[in-house]
């Protein structure tokens, strides 16, 4: 019996783990598939577009050639051209003129564009040019952004649970250290007093026996005490039988009698997991300073690694770029030379966006509490006090 029950227990635990992980994996896999499908779609549409030399592009080249011909050998005379004329000319230029569609809109470039769309970063250095690509970009963002927020909320629950448990463990450890210091510094009399209190608490918390309950009723008359003792006796026996009876495994009974009921129970648990999305983030209560410290350390790790393949960045520029990315601001002033390598950094971006999302949620909760206090304080000041007139 023991040998057969062990494989059954192993299967049931594996099933429980599978159904617990299933909702989280479902969201992540859906987002990955959505990104790959979008990359295939945009790479096919934008890379195959025809490059048309417009009249504006020809005018730009003519003006640039004219400015280059007017340059003299004297460097001081050319300063006005370098500082004013050439920058003005390039500000009026369209960046699409200098982009090769096949190189920019390959699979990895399109995947990078899709990630910037549904994460709402939008650097601006890559954008669709064709009319069909623009329409599909709006439709793609319409479904991709809610999916991304769903993944952020779901993964934010996991991070919130980890953060809250770590913070609670830290507080427990801190309280234990303080308690041990106070206990070691106290006198022997205080130790004895604490021991006596602990013993008294243990005695009180222990279940009373029948004889102790009967002795506690000595203050009453014998007539009613007799019937009262019988009731107490029956109640204690009933409670003792409830405690001694083995707990029945209702799920096993249902499984043995009707497997459909057990399946419905597992399905209902999975549905409950979907319904609990976002609850852990709402319940998280850690200091906002701790979250700021976590964000600073998280961005610093990437800022130290990013300049290794992006040679035009130092630590400060990489820190700025990561902060602008994780907060989904995405100015686009800092461009990447190797977006392919940054795509492998996508897991870092998603986790970082979740940490920033949790920090923003905590800040929002703190602001709501602050506004409530200010409004209640102003309301108390404005409420007129009731005057009590003497009779």
Automatic annotation (TrEMBL):
<dbReference type="InterPro" id="IPR003280">
    <property type="entry name" value="2pore_dom_K_chnl"/>
</dbReference>
<keyword id="KW-0812">Transmembrane</keyword>
<keyword id="KW-1133">Transmembrane helix</keyword>
<feature type="transmembrane region" description="Helical">
    <location>
        <begin position="135"/>
        <end position="153"/>
    </location>
</feature>
<keyword id="KW-0813">Transport</keyword>
<feature type="domain" description="Potassium channel">
    <location>
        <begin position="294"/>
        <end position="364"/>
    </location>
</feature>
<protein>
    <submittedName>
        <fullName>KCNKI protein</fullName>
    </submittedName>
</protein>
<feature type="transmembrane region" description="Helical">
    <location>
        <begin position="318"/>
        <end position="336"/>
    </location>
</feature>
<keyword id="KW-0406">Ion transport</keyword>
<feature type="transmembrane region" description="Helical">
    <location>
        <begin position="286"/>
        <end position="306"/>
    </location>
</feature>
<keyword id="KW-0472">Membrane</keyword>
<feature type="transmembrane region" description="Helical">
    <location>
        <begin position="342"/>
        <end position="363"/>
    </location>
</feature>
<feature type="transmembrane region" description="Helical">
    <location>
        <begin position="17"/>
        <end position="42"/>
    </location>
</feature>
<dbReference type="InterPro" id="IPR013099">
    <property type="entry name" value="K_chnl_dom"/>
</dbReference>
<feature type="domain" description="Potassium channel">
    <location>
        <begin position="101"/>
        <end position="159"/>
    </location>
</feature>
<dbReference type="Pfam" id="PF07885">
    <property type="entry name" value="Ion_trans_2"/>
</dbReference>
<dbReference type="GO" id="GO:0022841">
    <property type="term" value="F:potassium ion leak channel activity"/>
</dbReference>
<dbReference type="GO" id="GO:0030322">
    <property type="term" value="P:stabilization of membrane potential"/>
</dbReference>
<comment type="similarity">
    <text>Belongs to the two pore domain potassium channel (TC 1.A.1.8) family.</text>
</comment>
<keyword id="KW-0407">Ion channel</keyword>
<dbReference type="GO" id="GO:0005886">
    <property type="term" value="C:plasma membrane"/>
</dbReference>
<keyword id="KW-0630">Potassium</keyword>
<dbReference type="GO" id="GO:0015271">
    <property type="term" value="F:outward rectifier potassium channel activity"/>
</dbReference>
<feature type="transmembrane region" description="Helical">
    <location>
        <begin position="105"/>
        <end position="123"/>
    </location>
</feature>
């Amino acid at each position: 019996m023991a040998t057969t029950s062990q494989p059954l227990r192993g299967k049931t635990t594996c099933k429980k783990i599978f159904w617990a992980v299933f909702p989280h994996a479902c969201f992540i896999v859906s987002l990955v598939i959505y990104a790959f499908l979008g990359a295939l779609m945009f790479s096919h549409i934008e890379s195959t577009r025809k490059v048309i030399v417009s009249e504006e592009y020809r005018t730009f080249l003519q003006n640039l050639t004219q400015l280059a011909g007017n340059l003299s050998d004297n460097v001081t005379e050319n300063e006005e051209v370098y500082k004013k004329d050439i920058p003005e000319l390039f500000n009026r230029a369209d960046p699409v003129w200098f982009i090769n569609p096949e190189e920019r809109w390959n699979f990895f470039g399109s995947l990078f564009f899709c990630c910037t769309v549904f994460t709402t970063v939008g650097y601006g250095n890559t954008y669709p040019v064709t009319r069909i690509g623009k329409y599909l970009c709006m439709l793609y963002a319409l479904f991709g952004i809610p999916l991304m927020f769903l993944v952020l909320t779901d993964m934010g629950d996991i991070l919130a649970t980890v953060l809250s448990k770590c913070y609670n463990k830290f507080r427990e450890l801190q309280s234990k250290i303080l308690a041990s210091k106070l206990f070691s510094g106290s006198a022997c009399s205080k130790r004895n007093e604490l021991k006596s209190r602990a013993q008294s608490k243990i005695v009180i918390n222990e279940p009373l026996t029948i004889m102790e309950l009967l002795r506690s009723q000595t203050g009453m008359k014998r007539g009613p005490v007799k019937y009262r003792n019988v009731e107490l006796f029956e109640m204690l026996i009933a409670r003792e039988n409830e405690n001694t009876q083995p707990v029945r495994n209702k799920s096993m009974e249902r499984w043995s009698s009707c497997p459909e009921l057990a399946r419905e129970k597992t399905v209902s648990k999975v549905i409950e997991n979907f319904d609990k999305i976002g609850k852990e983030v709402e319940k998280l209560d850690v200091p906002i300073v701790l979250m700021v410290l976590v964000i600073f350390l998280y961005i610093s790790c990437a800022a130290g690694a990013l300049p290794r393949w992006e040679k035009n960045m130092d630590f400060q520029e990489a820190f700025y770029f990561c902060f602008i990315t994780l907060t989904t601001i995405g100015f686009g002033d800092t461009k990447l030379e190797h977006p392919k390598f940054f795509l492998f950094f996508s897991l870092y971006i998603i986790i970082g966006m979740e940490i920033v999302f949790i920090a923003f949620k905590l800040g929002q909760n703190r602001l709501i509490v602050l506004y409530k206090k200010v409004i209640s304080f102003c309301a108390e000041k404005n409420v007129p006090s009731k005057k009590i007139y003497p009779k």
